[in-house]
Amino acid sequence: MTSEEQDLVDFVTTQRWFGSKTRDVVHASIVDHATIGPGDPSLELLLVEIRFDTGTHETYQLLRRDDLGVLADPDAASELVRLIRRGTTVAGSEGTVELIPVAESFAGVADEVTVTRQIGVEQSNTSVVLDDSLILKVFRRLEPGVNPELELLRFLTEHGFEHIPRLAGWYQYVGRPMESTLGILQQFVPDGRDGWELALETLGSRTEWFLHQLEALGRVTAELHTVLGSDPTDPSFAPEQTSSESLGLLTATVDEEIEAIFLDLPDEDPELEPLRGRGEEVRERLRLLTNLGGVGRVIRHHGDFHLGQALHTEGGWVLIDFEGEPARSLPERRRKRSPLRDVAGMLRSFAYVASAGPLRGVVPPPNWEERARSVFLDAYRENVDPSLMPSGAAMDKLLQVFELEKAVYELRYELNNRPDWLPIPVAGIVRLLDAEVPV
User: Fold this and answer.
1) Within 13 Å of residue 131, how many CA atoms lie on the same side as its CB?
2) In angstroms, rounded to a whole number, what is the distance separating the alpha carbons of residues 59 and 33?
């Protein structure tokens, strides 16, 4: 490798947002660059291709001040916001960078951003808060096509869903290498409390208060799905009837994940003992659950729904991060699915709270998880558009399918990232295996 290549590889592969840390990088190159901000030195946007020994590659977005070689610059956020607000198109060597405002969202926002701070909890993106009024999310790993988060935020805004931070603009790349969303700008929610942290904080006190908030979250979730399934004129969002073929695809997808994980469970980990040899049992449970009649409709959905994606404010719940599960491909994240997939994700989040509480020295009240599930589900069922849902036992069966899918996904994630948390998805899978099949 040249020295520039090595510098790129050394920088990208050590970042939290680099998603392929276990793979061998053999090549790195800048496939396009654009000077997007004035100054001395100027601000450059780079599209960097990282190629692996398998012949595959990934493309990442970097920002730098050119003559300093600085590959991450927090000041870039304020420059990008100025360009988005103005509405600008910048030419690169192979394509263009388009910066597009939603003008009405800048009402009351200062002309110049003076204070920026980076949010440090993200794994796959970079988000910067500006003057506690705006938040810029920079997508690091790029895939061809519109990012689901931009797509859903635009749709929800146009259709009057108020439980999201208002979209203020975005920027995108259009060129020969790919067309891709580079980042989005939204209004910041300064008083928002992360639902996950709030749940853990209230385990030892204010339990009833928080359960009441979960009832409200169930209503907001129902409204979200009702709005997402409300426009039959938009091909990307029109609700569709499910078929035996689509249900078969769901079964096959989950079955592939089960096989990939259960064939390769580490032998030395005692936390996995309750699952050893039960891969076929999980498949059989899946086959029983997917023996359904009507399964409702499929729509666009959040795709990675849990308590950490809901902010609690004085005015109610605000939902965030609509880009879907980062480990899945962009076409998969844009696929229409049953809205019960989001519901299952939230129910699994309650299981995580109940298990994580003792790790923080707080024992949940008796039956906390069961009560949380009940109040959330009851509110959801009462408020969602019934045409989207299967009826009776079919709804309960389909919900168990998606809980099983989510728990298997969690098992894979914890094996790779947080082995100390393995007992949580293991317990979830065992519970679903032992539960009666709804009839």
Assistant:
1) 14
2) 13
In DSSP notation, 196-233 reads HHHHHHTSSS-HHHHHHHHHHHHHHHHHHHHHHT--TT
Looking at residue 169, its pLDDT comes to 94
Average pLDDT over residues 285-307: 82
Answering whether pTM is above 0.85, one says yes
Q: Is 102 helix (H, G, I), strand (E, B) or coil?
A: coil
Average pLDDT, the chain: 87
Q: How far apart are CA 422 and CA 425, in angstroms?
A: 6
Q: Could you give the angle at the alpha carbon of 219 between the alpha carbons of 404 and 135, nearest 5°?
A: 85
Query: What is the per-residue pLDDT for 243?
Result: 65
Mean pLDDT of 87-97: 94
DSSP string, 314-361: TTEEEE---S--TTS-HHHHTS-B-THHHHHHHHHHHHHHHHHHHHTT
Question: Taking a C-beta distance cutoff of 8 angstroms, is the pair 224, 161 a contact?
Answer: yes
Show Cβ contacts of residue 215 under 8 Å, excluding neighbours closer than 6 positions. 375, 376, 378, 379
Tell me the Cα Rg of the chain.
Answer: 23
